[in-house]
Give the backbone structure.
Amino acid sequence: MGTRGRWRSVQLDSFVADVQEAARAGRFDIVHAMLPVPGADVYQLRGGTVPGQRMAGRRRRGFLAGLVAGLCEPFNRHRARMARLEWQVVADRQVMCLPVSGMVAGELAGYYDRLERVRVVYNGVEVPAADSAWRSQWRLRRREELGIGPEAVVFLTVANNFLLKGVPEAICALSGWYDRRGGGRRADIDVRLVVIGNGDMELAKRWAGIHGVADKVHVLGYVRDIFTWYAAADAVMLLSWYDPCSRVVLEATRWGVPSITTRFNGAAEVLAGGAGLLVDSPTDVDYVAAAMDALTDPRCREACSAACARVADELSIERHVDRLLAAYAELPER
């Protein structure tokens, strides 16, 4: 499905047509779509809303560049087609909308005036046992590979889109922490940032060099065994410009690792009970540095980890499925 045509907008239309044809031909109790497919019973907004995505792009680029990007939006045929399809689906009040966070539910209300038949279903994540016997070994091994001592405080960023997930801002915040630590922050602590993902590694290394923290930032690219790196970290830092519900923050929370993230990340909602720290914007260097400083204190990390344990079961795949089934139960029978 969806492979016909040269352009993404054409491929999208062919995919939607194929799904609609399959739904008409088959005897399905429920048609659950994660892209806006008119005629589906359930629309799960895993990527957030199209207007939310657009607004995030403008916000990240700043006023002038964002203004230019907004003027160019009508020429993005794929995004424009997605927007029309989403409007058509959300306008159908019989469709059950499943945003992956309260943030995305707010977008449905704000952009579409859609309040009824909306149920928040957070992403679920599968993780190894938090008290895995291998965890301490993974921690030592990964740190040794990077030349990081056992007493260093390691912040971990996991992202494929480095710009969207705030990697430049995380590097800037690390530099800000070192610049300010003499003014009351603990000057003897070795703080590191480990960046993992399929982003532009060389550019990230240049950012680190420009900000004077090249020896404190480790850019690793893609890794297969991500939980060994969660084990090596003391905290996750994901300064997202837009994230409907980051699985990275959910995984870290389920594994007892506190997070720093922004209000533009729907997963920030699970940190409300103390499982991490929230900042207003990726560019608030002082606030991010202050959050980093707080998490250099082992007592703060322990308190956050305890809060993580209190919400961990809410983020399991089993709980995710329970919420989906509860939403399905509200649908009228075909």
Notes: The mean pLDDT is 91. The chain is about 45% helix and 10% strand. The longest strand covers residues 153-158. Residues 8-25 form the longest helix (18 residues).
